[in-house]
Every structure is written in structure tokens, then in C-alpha cells.
Specification:
The chain contains 22 helices and 21 strands. By secondary structure, the protein is α/β, with parallel strands linked by helices. Among the domains are: about 100 residues, OB fold (Dihydrolipoamide Acetyltransferase, E2P) (Beta Barrel), CATH 2.40.50.140; about 190 residues, Rossmann fold, CATH 3.40.50.300; about 160 residues, P-loop containing nucleotide triphosphate hydrolases (Rossmann fold). The strands form four sheets. It has a seven-stranded parallel β-sheet with strand order 11-12-10-13-14-9-15, with helices on both faces. α5 crosses α6 and α6 packs across α22. The longest helix is centred in the N-terminal third of the chain and has 31 residues. It is globular, with a radius of gyration of 32 Å. The protein binds adenosine-5'-diphosphate and magnesium ion. Magnesium ion (MG) binds next to α9.
Amino acid sequence: MTETSPLLKEIQYLKGVGPARAAALKKLGVENVYGLLYYPPRAWVDRSIIKPISKLIPGERETVRGIVVMSSTQKVRFKLSITKVVVQDKTGHITAAWYNQPYIEKQFKKGDEVIMHGKIDMYRGMLQINTPEYEISSPDETMQAGVNVNRIVPVYPLTESFTQKQFRAIVKTALDNYLQYVTEYLPEEFRKKFGLIQLQQSLAGIHFPDTFESLEKAKYRLIFDEFFMVQFALNLKKQKAEAQKGHVFNIAGEYKEIFRKHLPFKLTGAQRRVVEEIKKDVSSGRPMNRLVQGDVGSGKTVVALIAAVIAKDSGFQSAILAPTEILASQHMKTAAKLLEETGIKADLILGGAATKDKKAALERLKTGETDIVIGTHAIIQETVEFKNLGLAVIDEQHRFGVMQRAALLGKSEIKPHVLIMTATPIPRTLAMTVYGDTDVSVIDELPPGRKPVKTVLFSGANRDKLYNFMEERLKEGGQIYMVYPLVDVSEKVDLKSAIESEKETAIRFPGYKTAIVHGQMKKEERAAIMADFKEKKIDILAATTVIEVGIDIPNASVMVIEHAERFGLSQLHQLRGRVGRGDRQSYCILAGEPGTEDGFKRLSVMASTSDGFKIAEEDLALRGPGEFLGTRQHGLPEFRLANLITDRKILESAREAAEWLLSSNCDMDHRKINETIDNIKHKSGRNYDLINIG
Ligand code: ADP
Ligand code: MG
């Protein structure tokens, strides 16, 4: 499609549109003819089965065909007129009725053949069809396959500006006059291989399909196209990345050996496998771009540290980024402990004022005295200088935006290796789309000796039962989290209820120490309370979701989640991961009243499985991809027809097709390959840039 293609003609100039309708179309996102052709119906109804009048069933929506025998308009009351058109076929007659639309009468002439579709009623013993959609053929013209009746009819997602009938007419005009300008960009060979019908055919078929089979083929092609554009772009990007130069790390260095020797536990099989994958990446000569997915508690931190130790063996510095200061501090403690005997130097750099200590830390980083710097995104937001950054580890990646990653990567000439760690399992379909240019590793094994968390749904007013249970756990020496929903900091009511509940709990457990942390407290205050909890100076910690990610306090064995029905599935899973980290049997108590079916479903899923991937799949199905990822920053493209949950087979095929086209396996003629690639780039135009995943 060139700049001057008739398809790009402003929609206002399409026959039957004009300025007012053009404005309404713009609100629907339709700017030109091309946009209209790609505006898919939301449903299709079968109006192709025409019934003899004698067989019509009152209450059903049906399609009838007959000859006009009379028409009239009556004023029934001051503000009500009824237009009636009687139509008959060989088996009987039916009255069509319209209210306060007297002009309709003129459209029907005695002897006209009409097709009507609408709900059938009985009125005074007569069959009646109220405000039907209809089509009339004049006597000198045979009835064509209609637009509104006598066929499978599209139903569009519309606002009040259009009736379905008006919109169909506009689409029909666009198809009749402009479909010829739509150019195919996938050669026949390619289409054959992947079972795709031709593009013009699919656009015609999505709006006005002849049969439901042809509708499916049309949908398939257009859904394929949506997925294919994304997969193609991701593949190109990946190829480009693979052509880049990366640091070659020494994967058999001394520090790694020392680190291994002093590790207080044996790596799990899954951890070892992921370490091997990382080793392969960092010694390949290309920059690593790997996502490690591992359920909460699966031991991602030590894997990240091993990567950093390998960097040290190779003479490079590493950065480990955490989403919050609390977590960065926790990583720092873990790292300090595990690195104690190795001689590798780690430093913590947090945001805030440039104190003397911080200045010194920055200086150590710049001179290369520091091997591993741990911190929050402050590391990349501020003017932090490295001597030679070779590896960036981004923990709990879903909290970061794309821009921040880019900033970090800009800090050295050769792109550093990048390792992303996430505890939010991402269903494969989504990962393929959002992280299609990233290699993915999975730690699918928990360290040995972990007891699965027992999850209980607790609904009902009997708080005593809950309190008694808590008391028993406290007597055993365990600690308890109580979590309150606080979706947004502005939700003061929630905060108030959290604070009040904490007071209530304190009164109920006089022998134990309780405290509260929430998002409106100062960072330092929050960190101090978390530290006290870790040191068991606090027995019951009431909290809003600030404890969601990464906190590791093995002695805390009970988590009570209040109003659990108000949390999303993935969030509940994250929260539950805070317990079950030590030797005690742990419990997650989901307290609340699931008022909705969705709420009940979520809580049941939680009670039935602890598999993060299963939970993520359910969450995706319940909430949809946009909500699941939570923010637009993640580069999830907007699909018009494609659905990541129901169309995963088409997604797999589109991915395979993109890989094939860009690989040496593609057996199409070379000229044709290049032409196709050019055509795809051209077609994807704007969308292509949207897929911007660092
Ligand atoms: P996450 O994947 O949630 O970030 P962590 O890295 O915080 O998990 O690890 C959770 C806990 O498990 C930590 O206390 C860590 O020291 C411990 N751990 C990690 N790997 C192992 C292992 N192979 N054997 C025993 N304990 C381990
Ligand atoms: Mg972690």
C-alpha cells in the first residue's frame, strides 16, 4: 500500500459517509477505507435460512421472504403512529410493524418482493414481526444476496451513532469499491504452506461470509496476520541481537569454584540446568538476553549470583536490580553472606541523597573496586558510572518499565549480558508475544525439604476460630502475616480498615507483638519494621501488599489474607509465596466472602494448586492479557481479532511461519523471500515500531 493508495482516502469521502458520520467513525478508530475494511464484526448471525410463513415460531428471531400485499400507517394516539406492511408467501401472511416511522410506508410498493428478519410475535391472533430489518427488490430486479437479510449478517461493535444497518451499508460500499486495492503480501507458496486464504477474500469473508466455513477461514487468515506481524518483528529483532557482539565470559574461572565450594546447599537440578544455559549464553560471543521464570522460593537469587561470579571471573562488573529498596537490601544481605569467603566485593546503592557513604560507594563502582552493585532502579536513573559493566540482572522484572532497562543497557559500549528474573510465571502464549525475542529458562523445582503450603478458604463470621488457630501457631513460635487489600494508595478506607484491624489483633493477642506496614509509610520506617519482623521482634505483621514480592522470612509460617476475593490470582500466588520458606508447616488462609463467581473461582484455584504456571494460565483466562500484564509498557500489541487464550494454535503457526521465513530453511526463491520481507515490513508500518521490547 503506497502513500497515495485509494485505501488511505479519508473516510469522509466514501460514498454515504460525509463529515458527521466520518467524525463518528473516527471515534471508532476508523480514519480511512483501510481502517474500515479492518474493522471486524463482533458477531455474525445466520439470516440465511428462510422459513415459510406458516412455519414461523413466535418468540424466535427468523427470516421470511414474501410479496407485499398492502401497507398503511395509522395514527393510534397523539404521539404514536404505526406503519403496517402485510407480506405473504404461498403458506400464509405476516404483518410487519414499525412505530413512529411513517416514512417507511413509502418504501414498500404492492408486489415488491421483500426479505425481513426480526422477532416473531402474535398480535390478535395474527403473526407479526416488529421493526424488522429488511431488504426490498423492485420487480425488475432479482433479489441479490442481501446485506442485512438472506445471508450470514455481520454485527459490529458500534456506538449510538450508527445502526447496524447503516454500518453494514458503509462497509458494503467500501468492499465493493476498494477491496480491489488491497494487495496480498504473502506469496501463494507461503499461504499454501500455512493454510491461509488470500487477503482480499478474507476481508470480504470477515464482513459478509457466504458460509460459516468461509468465515472461519477468513478469521484464521486475519488472526494469523495479527500474530504474524508481531512474531516477524520479534524474530527480526532477535536476529539483529544475535548479530551483535557480546562479552565472552570465562565460565571455568576460579571465583566460581570458590563460590560453589562455600555454598551452604546443593543446587537443585533445575538451578543447575539454568546455570548451564546461562554459561552457554555468556560464552557465545553474543549478548545474553534471557528470562528466568521461577516460582517464588525456587532459588533465583543464587542463580543470579553465580552469573555475577562468572562475570567477576571474566573481569567484569555486574549490577543486580531489585524493584524495591527492601528487596535490594535483602539481596545485599544474601550476597554478602554467600560471597563472604570468596573475596568478591558487593555494594548496595540506593536512591536518595548523595551522602558521604553513597559517594564513596559510587566512587568504588567507578574505579572497579566493586564487583557487584546491588540496588533499585536508582542505579540506572542517576548518573552512576561503572568501570566495565558486563552483566545486568533485573529481578522481578514485571515491576520495571522498558525504558529503565534501556537506560541500563546504554551504560557500556558492548551490550552487557542481560538476565531477567521473574517470579510471575507468564503463560507460554503471552511469553511468546511479549518476550518473543528473549530466551526463556524455567526453574521448575523447589529446593528440597519444602513443605507445600496448606491453603484454606475461610469464610464466615467466626473470627474466634481463626484467632484460635493463629494463637496455636504463635505458641509454637511461628510468625504471622496478615494482609489487607490496598489496591491504590488513595483508597483511604482500606488503609483505615487495615490499621483498625491491626489494633483489634493487638488487643486479641496481648502477649504478642504486632505491627503494621503500608505503602504510605516512609521507606525507612517500613524497612525498620521488616527488619524487626525478620529478627522476630514482631510476631504478627499486618501489611498491605507492600510485602508482595521477594521478602524472605522463613520463620513466618502463616499468612492470613483478608478480603482475599479482592486480589488477583497472580497476586495471591505471590503473597502465598511469602510463607512456606522454612521448616515449619505453613498455612495460607484466604479469608473473605467471594461475592462473585470470578472471586469464587480465583479462591478455588488457589486452594487447589500451588503451581505458578497453572495459576498464571487461569489468571490470564480470567482477566485477559492486558489486565494480566497490568501495564501497557510491556509492549503487548493490541489485537483486533486475535485472542491469546483461544487462538494459541494460530499463534504457534504464525511463530513458526515467521521463523521459517527468516531462516535458512525457507525454500522459497531468494528474490521472493526478500520481496516478501519488504512487503511485510511495509504492511506492518506503524505497528512494527510499537513492538519495542528492550
Ligand atoms: P526466589 O526464587 O523466590 O527469589 P530465593 O532466591 O529468595 O527464591 O530463595 C529462597 C530461599 O531458598 C533462600 O533462602 C535460598 O537461600 C534458598 N535456596 C535457594 N536454592 C536452594 C537450594 N538449592 N537448596 C536449598 N535452599 C536453597
Ligand atoms: Mg527473589
